[in-house]
Amino acid sequence: MSIVFSGQAGQGLQTLEALLTRMLKRSGYNVFSYSEFMSRIRGGNNSTQVRVSSRRVFSYTRRIDLFVPLHENAMERFHDRITQETVILGDRAFIEEQYLDGHHPVLEVPINEVAREKGGAVYANTVLLGILAGLFFVDSDLMHEEIRMILSGLGEDRLQKNLDASDEGYERSKKLLKPGQAAVSIERTAEVRDEVLTDGINAVGLGGLAGGCTFVSSYPMSPSTGVLVFFTKKAESSGVVVEQAEDEISAVNMAIGSWYAGGRALVTTSGGGYALMVEGLSLAGCIESPLVIHLGQRPGPATGLPTRTEQADLQFALYSGHGEFPRAILAPGTHEQGFSHTRHAFYLADKYQVPVFILTDQFFLERRYNVPDLDTSKVYDQRFIVQTRADYRRYALTENGVSPRGIPGFGEGRVRADSDEHDEDGFITEDFSTRTAMVNKRLKKLSGLQMEVFPPQLFGPEDYRNLVVCWGSSLHAVQEGLDMLGRDDTAILHYSQVYPLAEVTAEYLERAHKKIVVESNATAQFARLVRSETGIAFDGAILKYSGLPLMPEDVCEGLHEKLGKKESTHGRL
Amino acid sequence: MGAYDFDHAVDIAWCPGCGNFRILESVKDALDELELDPANVVFVSGIGQAAKTPQYLNAHYFNGLHGRTLPPATAIKASNPELIVIAESGDGDMYGEGGNHFMHAIRRNPDITNIVHNNMVYALTKGQASPTTRQGFVTPVQVHGVTQEPFNPVAVAIALDASFVARAFAGDARQTTDLIKKAITHKGYALVDIFQPCVTYNKVNTYGWFKQNTYTLEESYDPTDREAAFRKATEPGKFPLGVLYIKEGKPTFEEGLSLYRQDARPLYQRTVDMEMLRGLVDSMRT
Predict the structure, then answer these.
(1) Cα nearest neighbour of A343 on chain B
(2) How many folded domains does chain B comprise?
């Protein structure tokens, strides 16, 4: 079931989203939520989708089963998504005339009037929460508990008014359904109650802590700021230096400085901020510093759509930085991967002394759903730094290109890092053979990275006729979209690491009759990467770049058009 | 031979007679006189002729990007407060390309020493104007002479209430060494702007010119008086040499980091706290 609230910035939709998803999850429902919002602090029109299901749900859908308008004009942007099956719930004043024609199911509740009776218009959200709690048969004690928890900062008087408002909503919900109207019947699962409810921000942040992150320097930029805030909140208890730098240039140079002195540093940024960090990336490449970059994508160019989503910085992450040096790019598709891959990024960066990207996007970071667990049993705590001896050479030439990494203050040697071309000791050199040896040394590390690549994951039949390829946050929409289409001759290949590209890629692609790529960008960037690495071209692309997340409906319709009729047997030709 | 000298010959890239040689000697003398163990001393520099200084003494160094000397220096100190961190580079690096970091490093107040070789010209790129170039100075780019007001680093630092601000002249080795020693032992951010004659690209601001256009602050000068310091830093005529300003008692950046309050260990000695992590994940269940 898909519920959409449509309100204005400043109306408290985020609090409602947090309360509702927590409450429903704790009642045993699987939940998913995502808010799309304008880049403004007040007014405009923002909306939150909450999906409630007996099965796990992970994607943002076009379909709306229950629509709640919370201000005038709240329906304006949703005309194409509200159908005759969509139940409209709320104040009559906020429901457009055209929907009061008798053909649309409407549940009128004077939410604002009730809220005013309970102390003021600010209680409208809690009245609504109560109504939904009633409709979903949530235990009222649980509802109270959640309100107390989330609104604990309000003070006793306002807290009590919120509780009263929620009770009134709860009561009213019982009288909402007329005889014959179907009540909500979604099966609940006991195990879900104790699952972990997380958004991408927390998944990435916790993954960082599991990766041993001890230093975060960044400059605020949507949608990456949440990760900075995560670490700030945890700084005291978890021993992380967190600094808001004067700009992204400072942020990335601080992070590299921290690694040099024994920290494990992360920067979190978005495209425009990352653009400023690019010289720093090249510095990390030259001085062979580990570096973890969380790049939360949003639509560009330039300021673009600050609060929206896109996957259009893959090529940028891949090719940015002057000179030639290795890197790795991870692109988690699930929140479990957001956790495990961020942890892994620290391992890779530290082991190979290279920059490693965690490439997410606004949709990935802001969406929220329940997962059974985030596996904390595997914690990266391997030390790749060495205690130096007096004859220590920072850039000693080795078989695999990785030199033992010393840090100042740990051992007797001198640790010299130089952004100029350098010799094995780290001193500036212009000796051509040393230069050649150093380039080779740095590039050799790519072989090691290649050996540790996360292979792509195949979903669906092994003997697929068609293969749908996606990466990063697109996974769930592609899965649900293919489910909607209901084709058993088609499989999905999802990449949670996009660079280095897994060597099995060609093998998977060659087995397919039709190969379709699905990406949230306009130029099929991953398809271009695959083509440049394997020489294999895709047969078609489903691309979305409006700023809204990729939806299962986009995928279903796109595949329907591109795959054509299903063959009677789904074997290979 | 001092602790910071190499036991082998070093091929130095500076012109004969360059002011940088004198500064290098003063820096080494200061470290030796303070008896600082080179294993605990980290130099951080950017790009330029001055930025090569760390190559020529036997300590740790991080020779990063042009203009980006202070951010890594700040982070190195914050990641291991036990290290002595010296950020050393030229006027172009610190005040031009790195101007924003200069302001914000002063605001952050990490316990580091910031040595700036100020030769009023871009030497590595062959003689263009730097932020501190005097008005009227003709260069291959500023062909009609520099028109812009020169950047006054000591006045800016005092305006930002920097914790230590000094100015030296490379030609006076003893004074330069003493000022560097004071800067290193001072707790908090310490700026030493050092006038450095460039014998190749600056034929105006020579050893002789600096000698004639500087004077040492009198014994009675009180560096804790901010208004007086600002007047000194901006007065027309000759440039005063010595400690211009000291702000005692400012908390350092590292002291403000909560994680060191309960646990003084540098970052490299820390491990992941499994229980804490487990607890954070479990807190998201209810």
Answers:
(1) B272
(2) 1
